[in-house]
Amino acid sequence: MSDVGREFQPGATLSRLYPEVRAGGYTRYDGFIEFYTRVNALLTPDSRVLDFGAGRGLWAIEPFPELHRRLRSFHERVAEVHGVDVDPVVLDNATLTSAQVIEPGARLPFEDASFDLVLADHVLEHVGEEDAPTVAAEILRILAPGGWLAARTPNKWGMIGVGARVVPNDLHTRVLRRLQPARKAEDVFPVRYSMNTRRSLAALFPPPHELVVYGHASEPTYFGANAPAWRVAQLVDRLTPPALAPTLMVFVRKG
């Protein structure tokens, strides 16, 4: 059943550990706001955007904080937003100008220099090692000179990345189902971590392209409603050096 129109209510664990969430629906560490504020700063009313791994548009069909929804609704403020995904659910994403299903690592069905920004939100971790060079080259091909790739992805050497790689993908899926029972099966995908380190990104997007990467530690929603796990994650985040932050914010400007 659709959750469109249902008001966002922060969970008990989130409210207890981050009480400020009750004032506006977000925490002081909110990675969504950090990422999409910067994405919006790169957009203009004339921008053409490709949502790479657009999926079914969770933010538009499930309860989200109003500020999240406002930042993510940039399709209302730019010229066009097209979407591609390996999953046919992208065809149901009503926020897109057009949607196409692609094969992993395949050539993207767009002309050279077609887009001003390519968005990849929690997508790069699903790209296999054999496909990573093609994916990077295709993103650069379809970007106009001076255009941006904006990506948010787990750090391979961060807590989430290491934990996800310790167990096989099938067990990883079962663990996610236990930690996040409300998460739909169609929103869980295998992880590869071939584009998730500063070194790999520098190799895939070398000069003259401009690479900006920085780490970020959000509230540990990955652990569902498990408060003890959240507290451990908070402690680990406080003790972790920036290079090992759980999430990488990645911005590449085409040279």
List keywords for this structure.
globular, alpha/beta, Rossmann fold, 7 strands, 7-stranded mixed sheet
Walk me through this protein's architecture.
The structure is a single chain. With 255 residues, this protein is an alpha/beta fold. It has one domain (12-253): 3-Layer(aba) Sandwich (Rossmann fold). It contains nine helices and seven strands, in the order ααβααβββαβαααβαβ. The protein has a seven-stranded mixed beta sheet with strand order 3-2-1-4-5-7-6, sandwiched between helices. Strand 4, helix 5 and strand 5 (143-154) form a beta-alpha-beta unit. Helix 2 packs parallel to helix 4 (66-72). It is globular, with a radius of gyration of 18 Å. The N and C termini lie far apart (45 Å). The mean pLDDT is 87.
Uncertain residue ranges: none
CATH fold description: Rossmann fold
CATH superfamily grouping: Vaccinia Virus protein VP39
Total number of helices: 9
Name of the level-1 CATH class: Alpha Beta
* Run of helices and strands: HHEHHEEEHEHHHEHE
Number of beta strands? 7
Query: What's the rounded overall pLDDT mean?
Result: 87
Our Rg estimate from Cα atoms comes to 18 Å
Name of the CATH architecture? 3-Layer(aba) Sandwich
Number of domains: 1
The geometry reads as: globular
Give the termini separation.
45 Å
* Strand line-up of the largest beta sheet: 3-2-1-4-5-7-6
The chain-level structural class is: alpha/beta
Query: Could you describe the largest sheet, including whether it forms a barrel?
Result: 7 strands, mixed
Beta content: 15-25%
